[in-house]
TrEMBL record, chains A, B:
The chain crosses the membrane at residues 6-24, 56-74, 80-101, 122-148, 154-176, 223-241, 247-269, 281-301, 307-328, 349-369, 375-400, 441-462, 482-505, 555-582, 642-663. This is K(+)-insensitive pyrophosphate-energized proton pump. Its cofactor is Mg(2+). It comes from Mesotoga prima MesG1.Ag.4.2. The gene is hppA. InterPro entries: PPase-energised_H-pump (IPR004131). Keywords: Cell membrane, Hydrogen ion transport, Ion transport, Magnesium, Membrane, Translocase, Transmembrane, Transmembrane helix, Transport. Homodimer. It is found in: Cell membrane; Endomembrane system. It catalyses: diphosphate + H2O + H(+)(in) = 2 phosphate + 2 H(+)(out). PANTHER family: K(+)-INSENSITIVE PYROPHOSPHATE-ENERGIZED PROTON PUMP.
């Protein structure tokens, strides 16, 4: 039974990979319009490749170091699983980005030559390549390693590899993209006075690269990481607790992939020409197919229906969190409009209002995670929590597809503008772009919610592993002072990490600003448009800086984890994990939602409200948006990954902590 | 033994009250200079009285409602204790403010006629009245109620009364002061173009009143509340756990009062004319006397020295947190300077930098609280945590004295400017004012740290009470899904509360802005200075609005507590308390420290750095400061009180929750 499930999961996931490759070819065979489009696309591609080359080189050295540590302390198979995890996630990210960079120019071309429906389909299927590859490669890795070793704990190392890659891709990409964004704006728009996305700006390509690096590759790696972590947590818990259904997570994930494929191929812009509704429809179809198929399988196989209940708790929670995020950050809702209105009283009131609404947005999402985990627990214990996390993430193939659609059409819009396509085409790409916003907001909420359930499951995994090794039941009582000390330190670590990342963006932006100013000064004819800027140099600065600013906070976060573990012992480490989870979710949601609100309230004013572009309200809203940028695109979304990494480190080192900690 | 300690505590505390009244008279007998000074002082006094009258009226109805509930569910003695607690704190606040309003004009006069030393002494002793009355009335209430009933649990209601008053005084005062501040600036400085503190501005008196209402009465009520709560938590824990030293908290508090008196009377500006050093000296003397006297008493009475150790853990933690706050927010340190430097790149970077440093400032303080409670626990169990909280707060008589000095000299400075005293006098009051900043920063950190240890002790109190009633040991295991649900909801409540309070400031400011504009339009000759504005109307609007904006968030916070308790049961309530404590401390520190940083970085620029007043950097710093104002003076400091209120509610209702909750 175990073997059959693992092998069918492997087969389904490999089919998913093949389907991804097929769509990759399908996108590639579409034509690229003018030479100008080709040229811009080429520059973005070069920049993105430069970033990835550098990132993967540094990552390689880093990974070899971790690999060596794992090999020494936990054995060779752990080290190998770690590397396979990192590489699988890297491949998914790499191919996903490659296709995004093909799809953007082809979407612009199709909008010009063939109309909305075709342009939409190219963009969406471009995104689907990432979706299918992420779930395919992730599940293939998990199921093959399990089929070979039949030891779920080896999978912890596989998951750890994916997490470390995700930390680099998400946080590093986040620093990169905001560095480029802020400095391109500050020098280009403010100092020199040229429009946004003007090809004379040396940072413009870095800015375009950033969207792909942060939003495509970063989000893909983030969800790869959560997806794997949830499956692994469930399998390790299942084995440690002696649940018969150890392979249930593999079955759920397999059904999720099939459902996503059904969803992906049902997405099409129909007569009403509404791309947003098409994306939503895909998600509904996927969820419905998933819910029904799992129910039917449960009935046929006579599984206890409580497992299905736990799975549905996760699916419902994911939806609630997604809609909360949309409600708080959508341009059509009251919170965004009120924030925009507050901009009339200046930047300070804009900041205070958006921040306050961000604080208010936490309760429904966090209560949703709490209730889902409570229901799942009531049905099938801690294993149920893990199952609900797996189910929430099972449909991630579809979720990523509509999310990656966003940056592709965003890029297509920029390319249409830069290559001088007609007004009609630009407004069509605008319509395509607007449709991406809701799915983007929902995905962010979804990613945080899924990470929440996953890390709660990982906390349980840690607890059960410790119990299994020591032979004692272990509780993390709030009133145990070591647990409380752990909690108090734990809530500080995501704060410290996000602070250092945000300061890193500023520092890095200063370096890049100096370079942009230098080019405008030293390259003759640049301002007049007769000479070309050195795009590659800006990309290089953003890349090197981003990776540099990422290293210290990552090492500090892992260092504090090890300190707490080996001084405070297993109880302090349990409290620390709990604190990091609570604070991580709190700050991730706060930053994402406030940032989203400021972004959209600026757009709302630009659409003509409260005086429109150039008004005082607009100036205030721009300041809000600039504060929100590193909030929502750098610090906030990195926190998911950070808490997953910390949780996996805790589970991995638990055998050593039990032996060597100062306090036992 | 119990009786003797309680009665000596009562005697010492009544002596403290008498000494406070003596200093009240001492301050009052000093002369008030010109009629102009008298007139301004009169207007501020009227406004402050108007606020307090209104506040106490609303509070009375609110208290009667709570009283009735307490009488029905917990018995008459609880209801009486509640009212005594609220009234004692109200009297301390009322008299403390009355003397502050006498001391401010007399300090200005003394600066004019008698020089720095005398002016300093009047201001400091004015602050000491509040210090002595707070500790005197608080300890008198606790020790007398205990001497009469010998039942520590009745004291929970006394403490609850003080907390509810503190919530109104601190949060209501905080909304009041920022409403006045923001609207006076927005209309006066920005729209009409008159200087700050100009008597033509209808909101100028409300602004002066706000400093007293928020910083004097509010801070006094806040520390009254924490002081009482720590003593009560220790006594209830001592009794529930069967510790022999139930009255130890009373002994520590008595020694603390004596030490504070020694400290207060040793404060004097000596030859070097450094008021800041004089204040610091008083705190050192008090701490040293406290540490030595408690050691000597422990040795004489042959108490186990572990109690003394726990007491010192609290004292040391208080100092660490105070200095961390100072380090992060002092105008002489790197973080403030770097934030000021960031202002050169605009408002957004100012906000991001200050916020990031605020996030970084959490770790030392929270780790300090964690280590102190850990050490205290290791020495004498949960009772030790409560003892360390009591000791940290024992010297609060001295702490309040130097803190209340701040707004007095701030007011004296404003009065000197408004009544046209000489440049030399103004610069003298400036020097006095600058000395208050460090103690103010330290007090804020101190107040949060003390609240932290106190609420951890209150969590223990809740746990032990539940255990005592049910007869079972109870643990709040992080992996119990009800505890986790409680934690997840708990961390949202301080966020929701502070968000609503901050939005309340904006709403209230809009009402007041409308009134100021109306006065400038309708009162002929106001802009020219030939007619007088209607100060009282502005005070009334700020008052009514502040109390209105406070009610909803307070009711929601208490309502959620009751919901979690009666649906989720004792485990969910325990988790909820834990979550509220963690999030309360996190956000209180973050907001206080970021706010302090923005405030001082603006001052740093105004002192001439990065282009000085009027430069672009200054404009950006002003936006940072305006964001920081409600952070540090409204939302941040209210959170201490909020979490104390929630914790006391939990302990009070625990017998009912055990009986009636949906989940047991």
């Amino acid at each position: 039974m175990e073997m059959i499930s693992a092998i069918s999961a492997a087969v389904i996931s490999l089919l998913s990979v093949l389907l991804g490759i097929y769509l990759f070819k399908w996108v590639s065979k579409h034509p690229v319009g003018s030479d100008r489009i080709r040229e811009i696309g080429e520059a973005i591609r070069e920049g993105a490749n430069a970033f990835l080359r550098k990132e993967y080189t540094i990552l390689m050295f880093f990974s070899i170091a971790i690999c060596a540590l794992l090999a020494i302390f936990l054995g060779l198979s752990s080290a190998i699983a770690f590397i396979v995890g990192a590489i699988s996630s890297a491949i998914a990210g790499l191919l996903g980005m490659k296709v995004a960079l093909k799809a953007n120019v082809r979407t612009a071309t199709a909008a010009d030559k063939e109309g909305l429906s075709k342009a939409f389909l190219i963009a969406f299927r471009g995104g689907s390549v990432m979706g299918l590859l992420v779930v395919g490669l992730a599940l293939a890795g998990v199921s093959l390693i399990y089929a070979i070793t039949l030891k779920p704990e080896i999978l912890l190392s596989f998951s750890f590899g994916a997490s470390i890659l995700s930390l680099f891709a998400k946080a590093g990409g986040g620093i990169f993209t905001k560095t480029a964004d802020i400095s391109a704006d500050l020098v280009g728009k403010v100092e020199i006075g040229i429009p946004e996305d003007d090809p004379r700006n040396p940072a413009v390509i870095a800015d375009n690269v950033g969207d792909n690096v942060g939003d495509v590759a970063g989000m893909g790696a983030d969800l790869f990481d959560s997806y794997v972590a949830s499956i692994v947590a469930a399998m390790v818990l299942g084995q440690t607790l002696g649940v018969k259904m150890v392979v249930l997570p593999l079955i759920l994930a397999s059904v999720g992939i099939v459902s996503s494929v059904v969803g992906i191929f049902s997405v099409r812009v129909r007569r009403e020409k509404n791309p947003g509704r098409a994306l939503d429809f895909g998600t509904y179809i996927t969820s419905a197919v998933f819910a029904l198929t799992t129910l039917v399988i449960s009935l046929i196989m006579s599984y206890d229906l409580k497992y299905w209940g736990a799975a549905m708790a996760g699916l419902v929670a994911g939806t609630v969190i997604g809609f909360t995020t949309d409600y708080f950050t959508s341009i059509d809702r009251r919170f965004v409009k009120k924030t925009a209105q507050a901009s009339q009283s200046g930047a300070a009131i804009t900041i205070l209002t958006g921040y306050s609404y961000g604080l208010m947005s936490l309760l429904p999402s966090l209560a949703g995670i709490g209730v889902a985990s409570g229901v799942a627990f009531a049905l099938c214990g801690v294993f149920g929590i893990a199952i609900s996390a797996v189910s929430m993430l099972a449909i991630v193939g579809m979720v990523i597809s509509s999310d990656a659609y966003g940056p592709i059409v965003d890029n297509a819009k920029g390319i249409s503008e830069q290559s001088g396509l007609s007004e009609e085409v630009i407004s069509m790409t605008d319509k395509l772009d607007a449709a991406g916003n809701t799915s983007k907001a929902i995905t962010k909420g979804f990613a945080i919610g899924a990470a929440g359930l996953t890390v709660i499951a990982l906390l349980a995994t840690y607890q059960e592993r410790v119990a299994a090794i020591t032979g004692f039941t272990i509780t993390f009582d709030l009133m145990n002072p070591l647990v409380m000390l752990g909690l108090l330190i734990g809530i500080c670590v995501p704060a410290l990490f996000s602070a250092m990342i945000m300061l890193g963006v500023s520092k890095n932006a200063f370096r890049m600003i100096a370079e942009i100013r230098r080019q405008f000064k030293e390259i003759k004819g640049l301002s007049e448009g007769t000479a070309k800027p050195n795009y590659a140099r800006c990309v290089e600065i953003a890349t090197t800086g981003a990776l540099k600013e990422l290293m210290l906070p990552s090492l500090i976060a892992i260092g504090i984890t090890l300190l707490v573990a080996f001084i405070g012992g297993i109880h302090a480490l349990g409290g620390f994990l709990g604190g990091a989870i609570l604070s991580g979710l709190f700050n991730a949601l706060l930053m994402s939602n406030s940032g989203g609100m400021w972004d959209n309230s600026k757009k709302f004013i630009e659409d003509g409200a409260f005086g429109g572009k150039g008004s005082d309200a607009h100036k205030a809203a721009v300041i809000g948006d600039t504060v929100g940028d590193p909030f929502k695109d750098t610090a906030g979304p990195s926190l998911n990954t950070l808490i997953t990494v910390i949780s996996l480190v805790a589970s991995l080192i638990s055998p050593l902590v039990i032996l060597y900690a100062v306090f036992k």
